[in-house]
Amino acid sequence: MSIKTAIHNGVATIEIARPEKKNALTREMYQTMADALVAANSAKSVRAVLIQGQPEIFTSGNDIEDFMSSPPRDEDAPVFQFMRALVGCEKPVVAAVTGAAIGIGTTLLFHCDFVFVSDESRLAMPFVGLGLVPEFASSLVVPRLMGHVKAAEKLLLGDPFTGAEAAECGIANRVLPAAEVQAHARRVAERFNALAPSAVRESKRLMRRHSAEEVMETIKVEAEIFGARLRSPEAMEAFQAFFQKRQPDFSQFE
Which residues contact 190 (CB under 8 A, 6 or more apart)? Predict the structure, then answer.
């Protein structure tokens, strides 16, 4: 199974467990994560959600072969169900990031309430390099967090950055040794067992109420452009280059 789910001591854990494919995400994996988030949100026994990968990698983003064989065509696609479920989760969401977090592996972190990264983590949003555009409201959130010029480095150039940089720009709460990240994240998630659950939910809602509608609208606009870009000649060149293990050649495009 590529996604492992469990509920223990008030924490619903969603574990990305496909290390042989660098934890690349498929349609089925997105659907499982979306369903797990919806279930956790409605379960009285769950006080917080923990999202984690494997010790050596969080996720490399979309599985390109799966993505190209059946790209998301409408808002009911599993990836968009996952986005809505994460944004709409009323309970605290904690992310434990060890290893690489690429593409949506980084952008999903913007919608978590607590993010803990390892000192070996590498994050990147290389959408433009694939002939695509930012997703999961990253075109809105990243400039607000980092300012335009830093956002341009991450979104236009796709420059990777460290866990320490993620903490400096407000994406992550704390940087820890890799061996300590998941245990620390779980301890934080379990702290909500001692807090008033409705007060936590209402506080989270208040914290996000000014941005929630804007985030969902941005996700929708990005998705429309992203879908069109998937069929573009630039994206086709980028994906062919990926499969052929070469650098894409965009010199013929204007």
Answer: 9, 10, 11, 48
pTM: 0.97
Per-residue pLDDT of the chain (254 residues; tens, 9 = 90+): 699 999 999 999 999 999 999 999 999 999 999 999 999 999 999 999 999 999 999 999 999 999 888 889 888 999 999 999 999 999 999 999 999 999 999 999 999 999 999 999 999 999 999 999 999 999 999 999 999 999 999 999 999 999 999 999 999 999 999 999 999 999 999 999 999 999 999 999 999 999 999 999 999 999 999 999 999 999 999 999 999 999 999 999 98
- What residue ranges do the domains of the chain occupy? 3-194
Which of these CATH numbers, 3.10.20.600, 3.90.830.10, 2.60.20.10, 3.90.226.10, describes 3-194?
Answer: 3.90.226.10
- Contact predicate 104/25, CB 8 Å: yes
